[in-house]
Amino acid sequence: MTSREGKTIMSVRKYFGLFGLACLILASAIVFPAVASDCLSSSFCNTVETGSTMILSVANLNTQMGGRITGNSGAGTGIYNNVVVSEYAPGMPSQGTVTAFIRGRTMQGGQVVEFNDFTSIFGKISTFSKSMSYGSYFS
Question: Exposed, middle or buried: residue 3 (CB in 10 Å: 0-12, 13-18, 19+)?
Fold first, then answer.
């Protein structure tokens, strides 16, 4: 395989990866409003979604995700998602695509708050760090 053929194959892979990512984002955008609409009749209703996607050929990756849902209003509810990609080895960056997002619609005491945060990076990655969280003391 020549150098030019190798570059063409990598270019095609990148386009397929980006196409797949675009399909995922579009599907989430279509599904999310339907999920959020379930809360329209309640005065206290929170819908929060977070996630991440990685398509990496060489990588040093660390993810953490968790949440808390309790019946005790003093403890509240929460969700977090931490995504970190760093160099595979000193001087050798990770390679690929990383995305991370959080979005939500909260209704508390008659007030509606919507938020959406999406971050993406592709190519050679020396450092990518995204920490997302949501917390509420209302149950």
Answer: exposed
Rounded CA separation 66/80 (Å): 5
Residue 32 forms part of a structural domain: yes
Task: Encode pLDDT of 56-75 as tens digits.
Answer: 998 999 999 888 766 555 56
Q: Would residue 76 count as lying in a domain? A: yes
Asked whether the beta carbons of 49 and 103 are under 8 A apart, the reply is yes
Between 83 and 15, whose confidence is greater? 83
Give me the residues paired with residue 63 across strands.
83
**Does 139 fall in a domain?**
no
Residue 86: which of 27, 129, 137 has the closest Cα?
129
Structural domain of 73: 3-134
